[in-house]
Every structure is written in structure tokens, then in C-alpha cells.
Amino acid sequence: MPPQDQPNLEHVPEHIAIILDGNGRWAKKRGLPRLFGHQAGTQNLRGIVDACAAYGIKYLTIFAFSTENWKRPPDEVSGLMALLEDRIEHWLLQLHEHGVQLRHLGHLEGVHARLAEKIQNAIELTRNNTRIVLNFAFNYGGRDEIVRAVQHMIEDGLHSWEITPERISDYLYTAGQPDPDLIIRTSGEFRTSNFLVWQSAYSEWYFTPVFWPDFDERELRKALEFFAKRERRFGKVPEQVSPAAG
Ligand code: IPE
Ligand code: IPE
Ligand code: MG
Fold first, then answer.
1. Is residue 194 annotated as part of the catalytic site, yes or no?
2. What is the CATH number of the domain that holds 49?
3. Under-70 pLDDT residues of the chain
4. Of the residues 101, 160, 177, 239, which has the fewest C-beta atoms closer than 10 A?
């Protein structure tokens, strides 16, 4: 929940995307196996979803597993899959009752059938919810997304003159959604790691050294305060976007 005693934020992003990073290092710092970090990280997600909904954020995208994360040691990959499956099962009805609409960014080829079915069922169950859209970027890669979009455009027989930025957006997993206004990356890494390659063209980026399991509602508030102070110019000059600046 956003703290009631704090002033309202002037500009709350419509769409926040989070690269939740640092689970492994969080665990290592405590002398624990990496999977404990993933457990703590997954647990942390629940409160952040509620807090974002309470702030009136309409879209929240979380990067849970990339197309490159399959390269990790098999034990870690299978542990992560089991954890995600468990959390979807555990949280689905609560999320549904809270008006969360779950969507999946990525593809399910090669994903264990039971997990793939749970993801599809969750999407189906929550499809008419309107409080907040939770995009679950799982087995997601930005380049992979663009390649698939191009393949589908060719399969649909589009002519070269029909290819526009808007048309490409319509073929991405995020079709119909606004681009992320704010992208948060935790754990002190300054890179995109193939996340929302197309959609992030004009996003504001917020980097924090905090490891994901420690990224609580207060940390979220800091990111939102940072965002509220940004002046987004989209190529224009300051006087055009906020006349008071002149
Ligand atoms: C992010 O934490 C979670 C996933 C990528 C699945 P990491 O597992 O990348 O944690 P670090 O970066 O090794 O600390
Ligand atoms: C990005 O984090 C992927 C997710 C958060 C799911 P990584 O930890 O996999 O990124 P790199 O490998 O350090 O760039
Ligand atoms: Mg990492």
C-alpha cells in the first residue's frame, strides 16, 4: 500500500517494468544457496503488485525469466520453474480477487507442460480483470520478440509500406498496451539484458543497488519520486513540454 501519510505523487507512471535482479547475490551475502534468493525474491513480488495497484499504476511488467536464463545450471533452472509454478498456484485466486489481469510476455515452447498449462489457465481466469495488468515476462527475450513479430508479419502477407512503428508494436507481446514509462533495475547492474528492446525507446530508467528481495514499498516509493521529477521531452525542447520552463 502507498503510505497514507505521504503526499500524493504528481505523476504516477501508467506502466512500470521491473528487471528484478540480485536474488543470487542476496543469498550469497547470507551464505545461502541461490535458490533461497529466488524464494525471497518471488515472495517480495506479492507486496509490490499490491503497492503498484494501490498507486493506480495500470500496467506492471516483471522480468521473471529470460530466454538466456536457460543457460544457468540445470538445478537452478528446475528450482526456479518449480518455484514459479508453486507461486502461480498459490497466488492465483488472491490476484484474481484483487482485480489483477495476468498476461504472459514470451513463448511457452519448451516450457514444461504443467507450468505452461498453469500460465494459460491463469491468463484465462483473469482476462476480464481491470484493476491492474500484470505482465509476466517469462521465457522472454526482446530480440526473440522482434524476430517473431517480423515472422508473423511476413506470414500475414504484409506489404513493405504497411510496416510502421505502430504496426510492429501491434505484433509484439505487449500489443495494445502503452510502452513502459519507467523501467527499474535492481542490484546495481546497468544494462538492459534483452528486456523490452523495442518498447523501452522512451522509457525513464531507474537503477538501484538494492537487491530485488530487499526492494520493498519504500524503495518503490523512491523510484516513483524519481520518476515524478523527470521531464520527458520525446525529442522536443523544454519550453515545448513545460511552458513554465521558458
Ligand atoms: C534475478 O536474480 C532472477 C533471475 C534472473 C531469474 P539473479 O539470479 O540474476 O541474481 P544475481 O544477479 O545472480 O545476483
Ligand atoms: C535479467 O537478469 C533477466 C531477469 C531478471 C529475469 P540476468 O541476471 O539474467 O541478467 P545478466 O545475465 O546479468 O545480464
Ligand atoms: Mg542477475
1. no
2. 3.40.1180.10
3. 1-7, 245-246
4. 160
